[in-house]
């Protein structure tokens, strides 16, 4: 059947918007994943400096502890024993590794599900499932980034306000990496949501293409009466 020009323009606009949403979701997820990945290995989750010795600054992360002095610069050392770590760091390490794995897998499946990528070009249902899977994995990656940062932040606040420590004793405080971790995890959650928005927009486009043409738009068939010449 024939389609009116406004319907064709609407279809092109919906298809273009769907492609833009897919790419926005992928780019946002990629940028947030890089931020979360960098945060995981930075030794700047917690900082500590003492009023008694202002030339020394301590930095702590999930994998390293660093000391900065004006004379020797920064010196980092890995933790001696995994079992000797506090429980919050052990849990945070596991969650961060899950976040890295799921986030990388989500980006791969999301790229394969993009319109225009030469994978399953004639199978839109497969691309739809790839995008749904990518959205779920991006959500998992974002939540497993937010969780360890929030756990370490909570324990830092509890230790900071612990009345059992003397006032002159230095306390651990928030480091820059914690804020970048919150930012990266939140960005991944938003990126995963945009994946689902792109899936819904694609479903709408498919439904619009599969709608049967109304009788008014069908071409009229002309019938001619056959007459005989006597």
TrEMBL record:
Species lineage? Eukaryota, Metazoa, Chordata, Craniata, Vertebrata
Q: Where is the protein localized?
A: Cell junction, Tight junction; Cell membrane
Its membrane topology: Multi-pass membrane protein
Q: Name one GO molecular function term.
A: structural molecule activity
The protein's superkingdom reads: Eukaryota
Family the entry assigns: Belongs to the claudin family.
Q: What is its main location?
A: other
Q: Which UniProt keywords apply?
A: Cell junction, Cell membrane, Membrane, Tight junction, Transmembrane, Transmembrane helix
Which InterPro entries does this chain map to? Claudin (IPR006187), Claudin_CS (IPR017974), PMP22/EMP/MP20/Claudin (IPR004031)
Residues annotated as coiled-coil are: none
* Presence of keyword Cell membrane: yes
Can you name a GO cellular component term? bicellular tight junction
Organism for this UniProt entry: Poecilia reticulata
Pfam families referenced in this protein's UniProt entry, alphabetically: PMP22_Claudin (PF00822)
What is the name of this protein? Claudin
TM segments?
25-45, 94-118, 130-157, 177-199
- Could you tell me what this protein does? Claudins function as major constituents of the tight junction complexes that regulate the permeability of epithelia.
The question of whether Membrane is a record keyword is answered with yes
């Amino acid at each position: 059947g024939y389609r009116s020009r406004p319907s064709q323009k609407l279809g092109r606009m919906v298809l273009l918007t769907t492609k833009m949403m897919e790419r926005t979701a992928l780019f946002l997820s990629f940028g947030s994943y890089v931020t979360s990945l960098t945060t995981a290995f930075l030794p700047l989750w917690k900082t500590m400096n003492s009023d008694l010795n202002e030339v020394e600054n301590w930095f702590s992360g999930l994998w390293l502890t660093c000391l900065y002095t004006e004379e020797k610069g920064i010196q980092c050392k890995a933790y001696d024993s995994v079992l000797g770590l506090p429980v919050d760091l052990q849990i945070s390490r596991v969650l961060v590794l899950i976040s890295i794995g799921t986030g990388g897998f989500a980006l791969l499946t999301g790229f394969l599900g993009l319109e225009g990528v030469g994978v399953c070009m004639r199978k839109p249902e497969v691309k739809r499932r790839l995008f749904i899977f990518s959205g779920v994995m991006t959500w998992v990656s974002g939540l497993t980034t937010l969780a360890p940062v929030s756990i370490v932040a909570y324990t830092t606040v509890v230790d900071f306000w612990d009345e059992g420590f003397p006032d002159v004793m230095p306390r651990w405080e928030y480091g820059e990496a914690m804020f970048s971790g919150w930012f990266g995890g939140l960005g991944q959650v938003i990126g995963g949501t945009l994946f689902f928005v792109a899936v819904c927009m694609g479903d709408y486009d498919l439904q619009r293409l599969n709608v049967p043409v109304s009788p008014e738009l069908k071409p009229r068939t002309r019938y001619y009466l056959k007459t005989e010449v006597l």
